[in-house]
Amino acid sequence: MSRVKTISKCLLAIFMILAGTSHFVNPGFFLKIMPPYLPLHRALVLLSGGWEVLVGVLLLARVSSRWAAWGIVVLLIAVFPANVYLYQHQDILPASPVIHLLRLPLQGVFVLWAYWHTRPAKQEPYTP
Q: Which of 13, 50, 80, 102 could bridge to 56 as Cys pair (CB 3.0-4.6 Å)?
């Protein structure tokens, strides 16, 4: 695997583990951005945080990294409604409207980043 892809995978894993941990350290923030139409807000916040930690750890293991990357893609798509809700209710997180708007396509960048790690690494050519 290329050095760049290895570093990228480690950075993504660290990001996921830290983001997941923050669901347990500061659940109040995540509870605020839960769309009201979803049930069991606290359980969903804890479940998504646990899932982030799990896929972050599994991304680091060669045997499970491709499945973990798919798990990240699914998670990022699943939590997108919370990002939309935050954009619609910007008073939850005081910031510039531009910042709130940029968060939405940034989610797509993260999906593509994780998707890159679902692809098998190209084999290095053999050189004697």
A: 13
Residue 55: closest CA among 123, 2, 113, 127: 113
pTM of the model: 0.88
- DSSP letter for each residue of 26-55: -HHHHHHTS-TTSS-HHHHHHHHHHHHHHH
- How far CA 47 is from CA of 32, 42, 43, 85, 97, in Å, comes to 16, 8, 6, 19, 29
Among residues 63, 86, 74, the alpha carbon closest in space to that of 16 is found at 74
Q: Which amino acid is at 85?
A: Y
Over the Cα atoms of the chain, what is R_g? 16
User: Tens of pLDDT along 39-50?
Assistant: 999 999 999 999
Structure tokens at 76: 């990022």
Quick: pLDDT tens for 11-49: 999 999 999 999 999 999 999 999 999 999 999 999 999
